[in-house]
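So, can you check these tokens?
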Amino acid sequence: MRRSVSTLKAAVLLSALALVPAGAMAQGHDEIHLPDTKFSFEGIFGTFDRASAQRGFQVYKEVCSACHSMRHLSYRHLRGIGLTEGQVAALASQFQVQDGPNDNGEMFERPARASDHFRRPFPNDAAARAANNGALPPDLSVMVKAREGGADYIHALLTGYADPPPGVTIAEGMHYNKYFPGHQIAMAPPLNSEGQVTYADETKSTVDQMATDVSTFLAWAAEPELEQRRAMGVRMIIYLAILGGLVFAVKKKIWARLHQREPAP
């Protein structure tokens, strides 16, 4: 009987632990508070800052694309951040993609077209792991949607590298980050110095600015129809409000007539 009670207690304890989020278990009482970056696209009337998104794509292309893919995005989609068809075509042609087979049954490389997906930095996941000490760099196509905190988390992560506090030991090959769950991350700081990227519009490329811009670009990439969806929602709310007012007015008019026809008691 005692053995069965002990077994029951153990089962209850395991069930309770299973309900605790992994992050909470890893961090204990160390709750992470993300800074509010106040992006332009936040709020019901928010819109993407096209200039920031274009700079963010430049940061992705020159820094992040060396390890991270964006396999769900095609070059033609970049027209959504304000690039012209000519700019997109010229940009895509800078990359080589594999195609084929040709008439001889062989695969070959050619300049990318606007309709092609973003070129992946590695041919497959095994090659990506081999080049990154066994860690697989995640695809960034919908990373803003995949992480709690969204763009604020991405911005905080990119600017959160620091020296570990006293008493904290960092494992070999890991880096301390204030905003990463557990505070130990395998990715080295990708944005590590001012001027790392030279912006075409001559914006000063501080680490914070680059992090803001690439977070804006990734937010757009994860939900490029955000502005259209919000605009449609606002139009629907206005339409329903007008329709509700008309229905209420008609109802009052009909019931007023019915009250007039009621015989006196």
About this structure: Residues 226-261 form the longest helix (36 residues). The chain has nine helices and four strands. The CA atoms of residues 75 and 194 lie 28 Å apart. The longest strand covers residues 96-99.
